[in-house]
Design goal:
Layout: H1 2-23, E1 29-33, H2 40-56, E2 60-64, H3 71-78, E3 86-91, H4 92-101, E4 113-128, H5 137-146, E5 152-155, H6 161-173, E6 178-181, H7 185-194, E7 199-203, H8 204-212, E8 217-221, E9 247-255, H9 260-273, H10 277-285, E10 288-290, H11 295-316
Parallel strand pairs: 1-2, 1-3, 5-6, 5-7
Antiparallel strand pairs: 3-9, 4-7, 4-8, 4-9, 4-10
Length: 321
């Protein structure tokens, strides 16, 4: 009788997981992007959504919910039903960086989400207006030291990823750079192009087209290796700044308490489509290095990333309400 009872109990516990595995997805999936249409994150999300829809047999609809540095979109997923039909195409910006600089974060990136898979890494470049009298990182450092507080750097806003990168660069080299915050990447890029600000740490997908056209010059990449899109460009480490490696990331997450069987189905599907040469090439061309990680690997990566950004925010004394 005990054996029969135990077997029945195991069967009852396994039934919901088996049902989720066989019935999911039962309708269209909404993939929230916490930024406006047309940007690098949105473009990558749409590439992923197209192939994921084919793999899962249901539409995957992109829902752009921009605002508050990405918090509006991320919070909408935290509050969604944990059934796998609402996902976040997330980035380190609204999850790891924003929560590290917020006095009272609206969510906990490590507690309120179920990591499914990291999609890729996002490369940053140190870009400069062509009129800047420095053509290398060492020349920039020398120029900034000779003119404390005179070299301006643009960011996407106070507490943004490239704001913290700029502060870390200043700290690592003993510089006094003047921070100029903007409301988003487009406004920052416009003033960099016009020479209103002199340097910026921006994503490769934004910077490289301007570098190729001669409208900007790139001084270094912030990745640990040279980029395929710019093989002649040295890394920051090669340029004499030891350990200065920063990359953004893209990944897919679900609300907390989403069933393990659903997480497994999504992870398996994402891992499969990320092996597609066509998708990989499309992402690479947009400055995204493909990374297909397990949920456990993604979780460990996020924890380390949160710790890194919290250290930078504390050292730079950056805190926003």
């Amino acid at each position: 009788m005990r054996r029969v009872g135990l077997a029945a109990l195991i069967g009852l516990l396994a039934a919901p997981m088996a049902e989720a595995q066989t019935t999911y997805p039962s309708k269209a999936i909404t993939m929230v992007v916490a930024f406006a249409p047309g940007g690098g994150t949105d473009t990558a999300a749409r590439l992923i959504a197209k192939d994921l829809a084919t793999e899962l047999g249901q539409p995957v609809v992109i829902d752009n919910r921009a605002g508050a540095g990405g918090a509006i979109g991320a919070l909408s997923v935290v509050r969604a039903a944990p059934d796998g039909h609402t996902l976040l195409f997330g980035t380190g910006s609204e999850l790891d960086v924003l929560t590290s600089v917020k006095g009272k974060a609206p969510y906990d990136p490590l507690r309120d989400f179920e990591p499914i898979s990291r999609i890729g890494s996002v490369s940053f470049l140190l870009a400069a207006t062509p009129s800047l009298k420095a053509d290398s990182v060492s020349e920039l450092i020398a120029l900034a030291r000779a003119n404390p507080g005179k070299i301006t750097f643009a960011s996407f806003g106070i507490g943004s990823t490239n704001h913290l990168i700029g502060e870390a660069f200043s700290s690592a080299n003993g510089l006094q750079l003047e921070h100029v915050p903007y409301r988003g990447s487009a406004a920052a890029a416009a003033d960099l192009l016009s020479g209103q600000v002199e340097i910026a740490f921006d994503t490769a997908s934004v910077v490289i087209p301007y570098v190729r056209s001669g409208k900007l010059k790139a001084l270094a990449s912030l990745s640990d290796q040279r980029l395929r899109l710019a093989p002649d460009l040295p890394t920051m480490v090669e340029s004499g700044v030891p350990g200065f490696v920063f990359e953004g990331w893209l990944g897919v997450l679900a609300p907390r308490s989403t069933p393990p069987a659903v997480i497994d189905r999504l992870h398996t599907s994402l891992a499969k489509i990320l092996k597609s040469p066509a998708l990989s090439a499309a992402l690479t061309e947009r400055g995204v290095g493909v990374v297909a990680s397990s949920p456990a690997e993604f979780s460990a990566f996020m924890k380390a990333d949160v710790d890194k950004w919290k250290d930078i925010a504390r050292t730079s004394n950056i805190k926003i309400d």
